[in-house]
Amino acid sequence: MNKKLNNFKKRFITLSLTAVLSLSSLGLVFADGARVVTLGSNLTQAQKDTMLKYFGVNKDEVVILEVNNQEERKYLQGVASEAQLGKKTYSCAYVEPTKSGSGINVKTANITWATPAMVATTLSTAGLTDADVVIAANFPVSGTGALTGIMKAFEDATGKPLEEDKKELASEELITTGDLGDDIGQDKATGIVNDVKTEIIKNNTKDTVQIAETINNVVNNYNVTLTDEQMVKLEGLMEKISKQDYDYSEMKNALESVSNVVNENLSAIGENVNTGLFDGIKNFFTGIGDWFKGLFSGESDGSSILDNTNDSLLGENAQIDATDKSTINLPSSEQVEGFFAKIWHWFTGLFNNDSNNTEQTEITPNEENNTTEETINSIDENSSTEETPQDSADTPASNEGDSLLDVQTQDQGSFETQEQQSN
Q: Which residues pair with 321 in a beta bridge?
């Protein structure tokens, strides 16, 4: 009897271990399958290998897709200029869907025109609600073509196609926001589009007059003046968005996250959005709480794809940015200085806000850029100014590209050829 019982126990344990191992392997396959990388079709094989190393993945760990210029044109044709469309695709993307409520987190490397917050709010328009996204290139590119790769990767990762109308709207929104950012600054442009979209979807606004009023109110909050042409473009975009079946409860986390990032970026340069005294206090202490949380919790647990990128691989001049600053490895001294700068700018902005509104002092884009540079230089004399957008969607910048050739010698010949072929 005891012998039979022992044999039964052995068989039970063996079967249990087999089942556990089988389920574990299935889980690993699912996890790997849920991570998708898209590579620009015009990159050399060496450059593609570098991008995989930057993302921190091997070829057999993720699904790898290629994106070409024809795919970009499918959604950008008619809303982007030929210079923005370009003729080649160099940008790459790494996408992982995340659990519900996580929102959209974006990290960029060598992307000079489309900011992380701009991409995040645009992806919410495309129908994404929860995802981690990394956009990168071997050399500086504008990044307008990256959106196509992200949408393609997300569809493959989830196995569910995004609605065509929403993908087209997302592409139009990206170009509209970027063009507006060329005049008033990328953060303000992103904030305006994101806030208007939030109000339209949350309140289910359909009436064109109410849409125009919403735009006017939000624009006033950012203390900017838009041209008639810019207003018409915004109204047209928001009218199209109002006709879609967006669910605000699903988009809320993503939209609020973008708003917080924009407010934090503007606060860092001494500007504030006029959302009211109590909302301003709430946003400030929320930002401070997030800062302390990141500082004393060891930043991140490293489980996100945003944490696993090899930023040093692209060279010391690579432009790295993210919606979650904890995924960027900054020296502790800069973090501390950034904390006290945040407090100072918030207090000065809080008590000077009314006087600024009364005077109606308008800052031109050039003056705003100069102010930004002076503020950044006062914190860190070694920090570099933001690069200007390129003329084509994924065309490398000649000056930044030269500096990167010293870092990536294996790509030298192909990169020089790309410079000669760029628009």
A: 108
Query: Residue 399 and residue 132: Cα distance in Å, rounded?
Result: 31
CA–chain centroid gap for 178, Å, is 13
- Identify the pLDDT of residue 54: 96
CA angle 174, 180, 183 (to 5 degrees): 145
What DSSP string runs through 126-180?
A: HT--SEEEEEEEEEEE--TTHHHHHHHHHHHHHS-PPPHHHHHHHHHHHHHHHHH
Q: Look-up: residue for tokens 């790459």?
A: 92
In DSSP terms, which residues pair with 100 in a beta bridge? none
Average pLDDT for residues 97-115, to the nearest whole number? 95
Measured torsion, CA atoms of residues 70, 153, 49, 104, in degrees rounded to the nearest 10: 120
Helix (H) / strand (E) element for 308: namely none
Identify the residue whose tokens are 């990128």.
Answer: 309
* Angle (nearest 5°) at CA 392 between 134 and 318: 40
> What pLDDT shows up at residue 122?
98
Question: Percentage of the chain with pLDDT > 70?
Answer: 63
Integer Cα distance of 80 and 55 in angstroms:
29
pLDDT tens by residue, 307-319: 999 988 998 899 9
> Do you know the residue count of the chain?
423
Among 307, 392, 394, residue whose Cα is nearest residue 111 = 394
CB–CB of 58/52 below 8 Å? yes
What distances in angstroms separate CA 227 from CA 224, 327, 335, one per listed residue?
Answer: 10, 37, 38
The tokens for 206 are 């359909």
What residues contact residue 43 under an 8 Å CB cut-off, 6+ apart? 51, 90, 92, 138
**Ranges of each domain in the chain:** 1-32, 34-164+268-400
C-alpha 106/C-alpha 119 separation (Å) is 7
Distance, in Å, from the CA atom of 157 to the CA atom of 35, rounded to the nearest integer, reads: 6
Distance between CA atoms of 180 and 340, rounded to whole angstroms? 31
CA dihedral of 266, 139, 387, 181, whole degrees rounded to 10 = -60
